[in-house]
Amino acid sequence: MKRSALPLLLCLLAGTTWASQPASGTFVASQNCEAYLSLRKQTNPGAAKTESGREYRVREIDERDYQWLRIEMPGIAEPLRWVPEACGTVKDMAQAKPAGREPRQQSAGICQTPGLQDSYVLAVTWQPGFCEHKLDKSKSKQKPECRALDSGELNIAHFTLHGLWPNKKECGKNYGNCSRTDIQLSEETLSYIKPWMPNFHFENAFGNYEWKKHGTCQTHMDDDGYFRQAVTAVRTVNDSELGQYIRANIGKSVERRKLQDILRRTHPDAPNSFSFLCTGNRLHEIQVRLPVDFREGPTLAGLIGPQPPKTRSAVPGECAQERILIEQSGR
Q1: What CATH fold (topology level) applies to the domain 119-325?
Q2: What is the dihedral of CA 9, 64, 293, 190, to 10 degrees?
Q3: pLDDT score of 85 more than 60
Q4: What is the pLDDT of residue 65?
Q5: CATH topology for 3-106?
Q6: Contact, 34 vs 49, CB < 8 A?
Q7: How confident is the model at residue 296 (pLDDT cuts 50, 70, 90)?
Q8: Is there a cis peptide before residue 128, judged by omega within 30 degrees of 0?
Q9: Which of 174, 133, 203 has its CA nearest to residue 30?
Q10: What pLDDT score was predicted for residue 135?
Q11: Which residues contact 114 (CB under 8 A, 6 or more apart)?
């Protein structure tokens, strides 16, 4: 991790009591992520990183929110290292039974069964920052909406939908893929969501992926209802005081503290529901933690619920610098 990110993470982790449980299974890295010797201190002697596509044995799991795994990394000094579960996927994981508690099992029977979600995450993209900086140029050219932004065919000055993700705490980040059913959206729904999920201007590949991986794990809406609710939730963020402030500063830098102050006007604990993700100092996404019974409009208060989390966990890729650049659409 770059040194500039350490103060933020140490601040977030200060005062937190960590507890872990022995676990077994296989972790398959999908990214090259920092591997920490100490989770609390975020130390990484030897600058160890996971290798995308490589498998590692799981040894422990953080039981506070199940978002960190301790894996074995052969070939390095001090090979037992902590990595965020979001850095990859877990296969065949089971936890040893601690005293007085039942073991936690991760299996297809639980983590791929629809209707068991206990919360949601709304992932809201700042498309210019995502296309220009989050993706490397080869991947950016593969996405038609990014090509259209670069050419000027599209001009996006509002937040867009990455996804609405049902979560189940005991599955960590692995609650998903509950069905292989493809989307079949009505023309009315497509017209409503295209401005807010611009890939639909050109194809349905990304929307189909989000539906099969995430949307099929909730049971109270069909695909039309799911995407409409997700887009309405994005519009709630976009039209809020937070969204208006960010959009008023396109092409400029904003202070992270200012964003948090705006959120506190909704609720003192509202900042705990929000994670701002950057590439360098450039915003590319906001992730919002939502209760299972969230209301997608018309205010942030309804979206995050009357009791936002009292604490928050660090999310990989969070903006580490005090000033955050809001990228402008186009060349």
Answers
A1: Ribonuclease Rh; Chain A (3.90.730)
A2: 60
A3: yes
A4: 53
A5: SH3 type barrels. (2.30.30)
A6: yes
A7: confident
A8: no
A9: 174
A10: 81
A11: 178, 179, 216, 217, 218, 219
Average pLDDT (93-116) is 63
pLDDT at residue 209 tops 70: yes
- More confident position, 329 or 283: 283
Q: How sure is the predictor about 252, in pLDDT bands with cuts at 50, 70 and 90?
A: very high
Q: What are the tens digits of pLDDT across the range 13-64?
A: 444 445 677 888 888 888 888 899 987 778 899 999 999 889 999 988 876 5
What are the distances in angstroms from CA 130 to CA 124, 156, 159, 228, 285?
11, 12, 11, 22, 7
pLDDT tier, 91 (very low <50, low <70, confident <90, very high otherwise): confident
Residues of the chain with CATH 3.90.730.10: 119-325
